């Protein structure tokens, strides 16, 4: 697992209070990991802080799964 | 219209001298002080370095990690104390008509720590507003009853009363009114506060409202004593289940007491100082007695607002003498704030519970830490000093007054 992937997963485990094993690439924040709309906003903000990036709202809307978050951040950091 | 009778059928308490009703009573009857040096933050530069914090309260015993992050402490306390009260009431939540169950909750401030944390974070940043999306819903004072209703599905009236230190007495009186007017069968009423924070201590210190007896925190809260020097900040919650009498009787509920009446008034005088003639305080007790259809001579005990401030304590006792006249020396007067400190918006609720427990146990908890007689105080009054006094209590009154000049008074009686 990449460094980015493990840091993303750690944030999700912390913020959503879910088990690490549930945080798989295809898991949806809302459908699988119990996030509500505010949780999702908070996750995006944590990613921005952790990786020192800006995720515009229109792109944040496309980050709905763990894998999408990791891909977005990996691209943003390259 | 015939008003319905309202009774108390459940109690919950989370206080600096006990984390359950049973522990709270043990503390009250034994004259235990809940005051100690502050553990929540570094007080080195603060004038007052002590408060009545909760002891050994671990939110993870009650909530999972994710819930804890979304709940300010004042909301955590609300959920924990209301759960105890609901369990104590024996209400069957599966058969209850939840549209006729309300939650009316008092909070003087709300999520002060949440506000403080978010604003400090902003101040440390580069000016970009990165507020947490839970900031507002965690902080707002009405989120406590909101969370209680979400947890249990109570769909009746739901809101927070805000009248500073009278907040939860206002909540109890509103609950009394909704039930006796027939709008609800049951209301979870009470209050919570969690203001032992940098902003809370700093703010009250700036007003010269707090005791600064740093050399002896456990004796700092000393209502009616000549050497009192301000109140001691406390935190926690109290919850009462108010229920329509026939509804309670039909299910064979344990009935602690009847809510006989409530009174409200305003000083209309000063933002924080009590009226020197105590006009509003006289009127609130008179209003309460009138509402209950009671004569002054029927009152056995009064749990005073008695915060341990130089002006307020004397003004309240003078008002009691005026309202109760020749009967005043027969009343067991006390201030349980000598033990719990001042829980602000939760004070009315935990002191109502103290009044009800005094009836239940025929024992009036003491006003502790008394050392020196104040010659401004009528010596004929029984202030229940230093030691609990056995007393058959059939009628118990509780006073609370808030910054802004808000006065609230509630009276309980044994069910006849």
From TrEMBL, chain A:
What does the entry report about post-translational modification of this chain? Answer: 4'-phosphopantetheine is transferred from CoA to a specific serine of apo-ACP by acpS.
UniProt cross-references to Gene3D superfamilies, sorted A to Z: ACP-like
First-listed, main subcellular location of the protein, grouped into a coarse class: cytoplasm
- Residues that the record marks as modified (O-(pantetheine 4'-phosphoryl)serine) are 37
Protein location: Cytoplasm
- InterPro entries from the entry? ACP, ACP-like_sf, PP-bd_ACP, Ppantetheine_attach_site
Pathway of action: Lipid metabolism; fatty acid biosynthesis
Q: Cytoplasm as a keyword?
A: yes
Look up the domain of life of the source.
Answer: Bacteria
The alphabetized UniProt keywords are: Cytoplasm, Fatty acid biosynthesis, Fatty acid metabolism, Lipid biosynthesis, Lipid metabolism, Phosphopantetheine, Phosphoprotein
**Keyword Cytoplasm tagged:** yes
Q: Which residues form the Carrier domain?
A: 2-77
**Residue ranges the record marks as coiled coil:** none
Q: Which family does it belong to?
A: Belongs to the acyl carrier protein (ACP) family.
Name the NCBIfam families for this protein: acyl_carrier, PRK00982.1-2, PRK00982.1-3, PRK00982.1-4, PRK00982.1-5
What does the UniProt function comment say about this protein?
Answer: Carrier of the growing fatty acid chain in fatty acid biosynthesis.
Q: What is the name of the protein in this document?
A: Acyl carrier protein
What species was this sequence derived from? Answer: Robiginitalea marina
Automatic annotation (TrEMBL), chain B:
> Domain Ketosynthase family 3 (KS3), which positions?
3-414
What Pfam families does the entry give?
A: ketoacyl-synt, Ketoacyl-synt_C
Signal peptide start-end: none
Enzyme kind, highest EC tier: transferase
Pathway it works in = Lipid metabolism; fatty acid biosynthesis
Recall the GO molecular function terms of this protein's record: 3-oxoacyl-[acyl-carrier-protein] synthase activity
Query: Which keywords annotate this record?
Result: Acyltransferase, Fatty acid biosynthesis, Fatty acid metabolism, Lipid biosynthesis, Lipid metabolism, Transferase
Q: Sorted alphabetically, which InterPro entries does this protein's record hold?
A: 3-oxoacyl-ACP_synth-2, Beta-ketoacyl_synthase, Ketoacyl_synth_AS, Ketoacyl_synth_C, Ketoacyl_synth_N, PKS_Beta-ketoAc_synthase_dom, Thiolase-like
Which reactions appear under catalytic activity for this entry?
a fatty acyl-[ACP] + malonyl-[ACP] + H(+) = a 3-oxoacyl-[ACP] + holo-[ACP] + CO2; (9Z)-hexadecenoyl-[ACP] + malonyl-[ACP] + H(+) = 3-oxo-(11Z)-octadecenoyl-[ACP] + holo-[ACP] + CO2
Q: What does this protein do?
A: Involved in the type II fatty acid elongation cycle. Catalyzes the elongation of a wide range of acyl-ACP by the addition of two carbons from malonyl-ACP to an acyl acceptor. Can efficiently catalyze the conversion of palmitoleoyl-ACP (cis-hexadec-9-enoyl-ACP) to cis-vaccenoyl-ACP (cis-octadec-11-enoyl-ACP), an essential step in the thermal regulation of fatty acid composition.
Q: What NCBIfam families does UniProt report for this protein, alphabetically?
A: fabF, PRK07314.1
Record family assignment: Belongs to the thiolase-like superfamily. Beta-ketoacyl-ACP synthases family.
Quote the protein name from its UniProt record: 3-oxoacyl-[acyl-carrier-protein] synthase 2
């Amino acid at each position: 697992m990449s460094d980015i992937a493990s840091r993303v997963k750690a944030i999700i485990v912390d913020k959503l209070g879910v088990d690490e094993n549930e945080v798989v690439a295809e898991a949806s924040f809302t459908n699988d990991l119990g996030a509500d709309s505010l949780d999702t906003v908070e996750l995006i903000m944590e990613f921005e802080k952790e990786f020192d990036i800006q995720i515009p709202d229109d792109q944040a809307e496309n980050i709905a799964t763990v894998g999408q978050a990791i891909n977005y951040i990996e691209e943003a950091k390259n | 219209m015939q008003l319905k009778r309202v009774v108390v059928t459940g109690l919950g308490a989370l206080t600096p001298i006990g984390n359950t009703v049973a522990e709270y009573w043990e503390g009250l009857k034994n004259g235990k002080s809940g005051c100690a040096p502050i553990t929540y933050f570094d007080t080195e530069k603060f004038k007052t370095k002590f408060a009545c914090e909760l002891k050994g309260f671990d939110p993870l015993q009650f909530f999972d990690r994710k819930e804890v992050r979304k709940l300010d402490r004042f909301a955590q306390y609300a959920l924990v104390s209301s759960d105890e009260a609901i369990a104590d009431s024996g209400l069957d939540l599966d058969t209850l008509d939840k549209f006729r169950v309300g939650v009316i909750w008092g909070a003087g401030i709300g999520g002060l720590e949440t506000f403080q944390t978010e604003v400090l974070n902003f101040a440390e940043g580069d000016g970009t507003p990165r507020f947490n999306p839970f900031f507002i819903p965690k902080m707002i004072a009405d989120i406590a009853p909101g969370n209680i209703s979400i947890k249990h599905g109570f769909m009746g009236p739901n809101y927070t009363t805000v009248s500073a230190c009278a907040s939860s007495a206002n909540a109890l009186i509103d609950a009394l009114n909704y039930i006796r007017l027939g709008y609800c069968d049951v209301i979870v009423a009470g209050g919570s506060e969690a203001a032992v924070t940098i902003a809370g201590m700093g703010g009250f210190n700036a007003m010269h409202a707090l005791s600064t007896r740093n050399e002896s925190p456990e004796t700092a809260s000393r209502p009616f004593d000549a050497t009192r020097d301000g109140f001691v900040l406390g935190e926690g919650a109290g919850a009462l289940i108010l229920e329509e009498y026939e509804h309670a009787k039909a299910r064979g509920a344990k009935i602690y007491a009847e809510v006989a009446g409530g009174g409200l008034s305003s000083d209309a005088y000063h933002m924080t100082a009590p009226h020197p003639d105590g006009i509003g305080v006289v009127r609130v007790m008179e209003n309460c007695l009138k509402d209950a259809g009671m004569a002054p001579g029927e009152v056995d005990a009064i749990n005073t607002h008695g915060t341990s401030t130089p002006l307020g304590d004397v003004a309240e006792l003078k008002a009691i003498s005026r309202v109760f006249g020749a009967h005043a020396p027969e009343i067991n007067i006390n201030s349980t704030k000598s033990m719990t400190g001042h829980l602000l918006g939760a004070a009315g609720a935990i002191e109502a519970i103290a009044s009800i427990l005094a009836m239940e146990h025929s024992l009036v908890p003491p006003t502790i830490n008394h050392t020196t007689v104040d010659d401004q105080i009528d010596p004929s009054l029984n202030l229940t000093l230093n030691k609990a006094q056995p007393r058959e209590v059939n009628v118990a009154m509780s006073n609370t007054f808030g910054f802004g000049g808000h006065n609230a008074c509630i009276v309980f009686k044994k069910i006849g």
